[in-house]
Amino acid sequence: MEHIIVASDLSDRSEQALRRGVGLAEHLGARLDVYHVVDSAMPLGIAEDVRHQSQAVLENTIRDYAPNTRLDYTINVLVGDIVEEITQVLRQSNPGLLVVGIHRKRLFLDQIKETTMERLIRASRQPVLLVTGAADQDYANVLGAVDLSRACEAALRHARRIAPDAKLSLFHAHEVSFLRESRRDYDTWKAVAALPKNTPEPVFIEGSPDDAIHDLMDQDNYDLLALGIHSRSNLGRLLIGGLTARLIRNPPCDLLVAK
Questions:
Q1: Phi, psi of 149 (to 5 degrees)
Q2: Which of 127, 135, 161 is nearest to 244 (CA)?
Q3: What percent of the chain clears pLDDT 70, i.e. is strictly above it?
Q4: Over the stretch 181-190, which tens digit does the pLDDT of each residue have?
Q5: Residue ranges in the chain assigned as alpha helix (H)
Q6: Is 92 exposed, middle or buried (0-12, 13-18, 19+ CB in 10 A)?
């Protein structure tokens, strides 16, 4: 992974995303590009002032996070719509990872429309790391959701890249009384999937993925959850599955979503 992009809105939510992005770029020797988008609805003069102020804030923040390294980074403050601008940047530069913070909860609007993070993740061709907690340590305990999809393969590969020394645990949720069929389908998928070396066998859990994640999170202190954006359907390239959308809105820990 040679190139990482962080999208920041300068909020406390984005601060940890920026810190995580800086840490990953240092660890992986990757180039880091940081973007902030100023709302184009602002009057031109005010937007220009905000742009300069934002540039200075991000510059000072990165210097605080990486004072003793030669981090290869750029800071870019744009004016426009955040989803449109970041999506265009991703298409032009094709980074290995997009890092973002959790969305600002809006009790009414969240019920009737996609959040900004959902829109970004749906539009991105790259894996997206959604940072929810403190980013002052490397990932130590990763949980992977196995749904037998190509997106799941990608999520596990990227999880190994950003957390190479972490403990990796997998689970596969299956319908009631279908354990034998689920094991057979998993063995078939594993035989052709491009999984990282030493990928552990999953725990097979009878029930829904939502319940499985809830129970597993209660049992262990996972700091990263990796999963595909959808299921085995080709629609996964265009849509966010219900489980993934719910996790984006209420992540139990940092979330890595891949296509």
A1: -115, 165
A2: 127
A3: 91
A4: 999 999 999 9
A5: 12-28, 44-65, 82-93, 109-112, 116-123, 150-162, 179-192, 209-219, 242-249
A6: exposed
Supply the pLDDT for residue 110. 47
Say if residues 3 and 73 touch (Cβ distance below 8 Å): no
Supply the angle between the helices 44-65 and 12-28 in degrees, to the nearest 10: 50
Both tokens assigned to 210 = 């939502």
Contact between residue 247 and residue 225 where contact means Cβ atoms under 8 Å apart? yes
* 125's tokens: 């061709």
Structure tokens at 51: 């742009």
CA–CA gap between residue 60 and residue 170 (Å, rounded): 39
Packing angle, helices 82-93 and 116-123, rounded to 10: 20
Q: What is the model's pTM?
A: 0.89
For residue 68, what are its two tokens? 């003793």
How far is it, in rounded angstroms, from Cα 207 to Cα 209? Answer: 7
Joined tokens for residue 251: 């992540």
Distance CA 110, CA 114 (A): 7
- Mean pLDDT over each residue of the chain, to the nearest integer: 87
What pLDDT does 234 receive?
Answer: 41
- The residue whose two tokens read 């290869």 is 72
Q: Which DSSP category does 234 fall into?
A: G
Dist. CA 104–CA 115, nearest whole Å:
9
Cα–Cα distance measured from residue 138 to residue 255, given in angstroms and rounded to the nearest whole number: 14
